[in-house]
Amino acid sequence: MSHNSLVSSSDPARSDDLLEAAQKRWDDHPVNPLNWPASKKWRIALTLSLVTLLVGINATAVTTPSLIIAERFHVSDVGFPNSYWPVTVWNTGAALGPLLLYAGFTVMVIPQAVAPNFATLLITRAIAGVFGGIIQNAMEQFIADIWLTDKERNLPITLYTFVYVAGVTLGPALGAIVGNLSWRWVFYVQLIIYCALLPFVVAVVKETRGPIILSSHAKKDHSLAKAANEMAHPPLSKLMYEAVTRPVHLLCTEPVVFFLTLWAAFCFGLVFIMTQSVAQVYSTTYDFSDPASGLVQVALFVGETFGFFACLPQNGYYQRSAARNPVEPGVPIPEARLPLSVLASLLGLAGGLFWYGWGSFPHVHWILPTIGLAFVGFGIMVVITTVDMYITDAYTKYAGSAIAAVAFGENLFAAWLPLAAKAMYTNLGFQWASSLLGFLALTLTLAPILLVWKGESIRQKSRFISEATYS
I need a surface site. Which of 14, 136, 307, 417 has the fewest CB within 10 A? Predict the structure, then answer.
């Protein structure tokens, strides 16, 4: 029986000939998403990638004009960085949202643009974050729906991670470009882009869930009816219960999920910390304006782009590991995903943070700490991609729940960690504040090093990983 079998497993001994024939017909049917032409798959994938990128921009574009917004609404940063709340509530919404969609997200940009007070801005951004978080996480499910093997999914997942991180990285740059018009134009420009893209999204993006498509076609093609009737239909209440409880269970009981979530969440949180740190460092040290500081963060995007291309040969190395797998010959070894991420964490994250911190002096040209930011971006991209793929490989059947746990941690760190950035950089100084983050990066690198060394035995001892493995 194929991997995408739609037959309920409650009666494995059943061998009805008609059912098997219907299942075989569905496996080979052209409307089955796994059988779609590559051009159609990539057309939808690239469209959803663009949507993910634009949603991420909405999360952080508000950071560049944050002081102007705070002044407009009489919000003070004395004692606490209250001007960062618009980003915090967005990411909190994104963390809770996945535990309707594009149109709802687009509609919620309107009250952000015309908000008469700070409270309205915060509430509408929290709701937009709920919609945005669901949209961003939807692409991973789409990838699972239409690409069957891990080899086929390597490039789509790498692309998804890139646009996921790049969107929030480029947000301050958009704020810098249009912020001089008015802070409201940061939202107006996004609204124009989202509305222009909406008809294209509706035209290109189609239903990709195999069971839903099968059920629809079984009404027209009665030869598929048997397979459709035998599909398991868990109650919605059960699905929602598992969607909430299983990620929490994994996060609290699986050390692999917990520590890799910490690692990835720290990296994603760094993107948002830099929206605060860069503005503070470059305005104070180099007398940069807020828009100019926003443009500096393009350096992170440059590093992330290099990280994207570095991940491609890493994917090939992972596939070749199948030839040397003594436990499951022919199956790639999950730990083969990790070597590049260890180097990226040590040299990119930690090294880049030390470089950025100790290059931030008035007598040092601004390009030097900016190069350090590019190294940080490289490390962020490689680490988050690695965690995403390793979790998927190790927890296979429950990969969606494990990834949801990671995404929850990433959005919480992105929401709340940067609130301490301004105080940290003020009290410790620019050099030691960045060094503290560098030492944290070094410490968290112990997690993948341990997995490279003992990953196989750790996976064998995990009851949940054994249960999550497809037979």
Answer: 14
